[in-house]
What we know:
By secondary structure, the chain is mainly alpha-helical. It has five helices and two strands. 12% of the residues are buried.
Amino acid sequence: MINFAEKFFEFSASVSDQPTDRDGRVLFFDGLNTYLRAFAATPTMCEEGDHIGGITGFLMSVAATVRLFKPTRVVICFDGRGGSARRRQMFPAYKGHRRSMTKLNRTYDFASLEEEKESQKKQLLTLI
């Protein structure tokens, strides 16, 4: 299996025109948000026919942003266990104005909701 984290760090090390100060330009990513968007929008499949769009889309998004901003460091944060639940306790209106989920226009369709959730979990665990 491809070590995506290693590939990402190889790429980010090759970015030119960086400030010499290590803290010159720090880029922060909301890892879970970036991953979920990529999972829903990227229909990439591996050679075995499994959906890997969450991984590939996530890495492409991060790589494109690194190329654009040329940061000296990249920090990717993922919500911990119960992240949204804790935020709702602190602020009950958290995400309260969001519309309900709609089916996305993608070329990869899962056989069932359980298969989709399992693929989503497997890909996320690969990333973190």
